[in-house]
Predict the structure.
Amino acid sequence: AGRLLAERHRRHRLAEPLLPARFDEEEAAQGEIETVWRKDGAAGAVALRGGRLVGYLVGAPADDEVWGANEWVELAGHAVEEAEVVRDLYAAVAASWLDEGRSRHYAVVPATDREVLDAWSRLCFGQQQAYAISEVTATPWPAGVRKAEPRDVDRIVELAPLLPSHQRLSPVFSGHRPAWEGDTLRAEVEQDMATDTIGNLVAELDGRVVGNFEVVPVELSSMHTGLARPERSCYLGFAITDPEVRGSGAGLALTQASFAWAHEAGYESMVTDWRVTNLLSSRFWPARGFRTTFLRLYRSIP
């Protein structure tokens, strides 16, 4: 299995060299598979041809409170020699998942492997979340953006809920609600602001804070792990601008400042992610130079 995943990752890195090189090696790739296999409730299947392994798939449940009654095929959860084998592997495990009442299925797939994406689509999986990456290069600090200060806490706490509120609108319809609110949110903002390794940035317009972006070490991301976690990379983990100033350039300036901060901090790449159905995000981030690396696919039965 490690051989198959290492081969998949090498092909992936030909399209996106910023991905971590260490998983080109079979031993490192095997370690990622074993991590997935050790998760509670993990189950899977292998495909053999003439006694030779030509594919594997491993799935495991994540937090039901967040994802519903679910099963996840994560970043290292599958690799095949031929795309069509994916359909046989999923068929071998999906019935038992459904028998256990786990009807929400997720699969994270390299975005550059069109044949494998097509195989998943013919299993009724659709795109839900895009993972993306960009180089970090020397970037001038833009006018109108600065590092957040304690005097900004009230305004940041006011702006932050606008993001999940937007995600609940059409055509995203996200049912996920963040754990933070009220005093919890305020405490997190204050803690992040006091942490030197976090870039908490605000944009001002006419003396008023109208946007807030936050860049953190990629190690703080629960999504960009393993195969999706490059060395010396940071994570653009939060981005919001006041809808009233949309089109003013505040988002552009905050993006530029995020790259400027990341370069000053010594990072070489930046990752982020967005809901594919979020029309604003799915157009804004690729236009800022982010390239999609993985796609989280989703199927609900029925």
